Description:
By secondary structure, the chain is of the alpha/beta class. The protein has one domain (about 20-230): Vaccinia Virus protein VP39 (Rossmann fold, 3-Layer(aba) Sandwich). The chain has six helices and eight strands, in the order βαβαβαβββαβαβα. It has helices at about 30, 75-85, 100-105, 175-185, 200-210, 220-230; strands at about 25, 40-45, 85-95, 110-120, 135-145, 160, 190-195, 210-215. It has an eight-stranded mixed β-sheet, sandwiched between helices. Helix 5 links the parallel strand 7 and strand 8. The longest helix has 12 residues, at about 220-230. The structure holds S-adenosylmethionine. S-adenosylmethionine (SAM) binds near residues 172 and 199.
Amino acid sequence: MNNNENGNELYPVLGAVPFLNEPTNSDWRDAVKQLPSSCVDLVVTDPPYGISYQSNMRKEKHKKIVGDDSLDWLEGWVVELKRLCKPEAHLYIFCSWHYVDVFKQTIQNHFNIKNILIWDKKGFGMGDLEGDYAPSYEMVIFCSNGSKKLNGGRDSNILRTVRTNNENHPTEKPVNLIRYFIEKSSNKGDVVLDTFAGSFSTAKAAKETCRNFLCFEIDADYCAKARQLLMGVAPGLF
Length: 238
Ligand SMILES: C[S@@+](CC[C@H](N)C(=O)[O-])C[C@H]1O[C@@H](n2cnc3c(N)ncnc32)[C@H](O)[C@@H]1O
């Protein structure tokens, strides 16, 4: 997967990185120190939203999301993404309405925010059943580091696909949605980065579409589960 059509090695510099295409149990702040500048073609990531989220959907509750109590990591994270991204990279950053203004203000100092995509989850979450509107969407901040075109041209900025049942993680994103982003904004053999991997949905989508992945998750349990899940995924099946 690391060779281009002419058989040349695309990322010789990444060959020495131990966690290329491995679900990696690490704080992103430590892992990125081993990565060279301008090595990433595409970022698809789902950071903590800064809302102290804990799911109440199950009898046996999921753990709280690490890093969700404050956004003090945000500026340093965006600066590091800027260092890692190639000049033409696209970025898809999941976000909720609560702090989208903070995310936007920080990101736009470093990248060109092209759009905010709406993911219509085709179902309602929990919450105040009488005094509020039912939450049924999430946002994805779509950014460009240059002037790269989308594969297959322009689509709607409203994307409709059902939410997951959060079997593997409290905020698990649909692999088909991530696969769509990967196919719109990268090519086979490219490198996709996810610094907040959770259930490693980005890694799974990257593997299915024959892209390389760099995916980091701080929680050892999620990472162990992902290793098992990913073993069963054949590259380019879909
Ligand atoms: C919103 S969830 C991502 C869910 C993921 N998109 C999925 O589909 O399962 C954010 C994840 O980032 C992880 N995380 C938080 N801080 C981190 C850090 N400093 N380094 C690596 N992972 C971190 C959390 O443990 C959590 O699993």
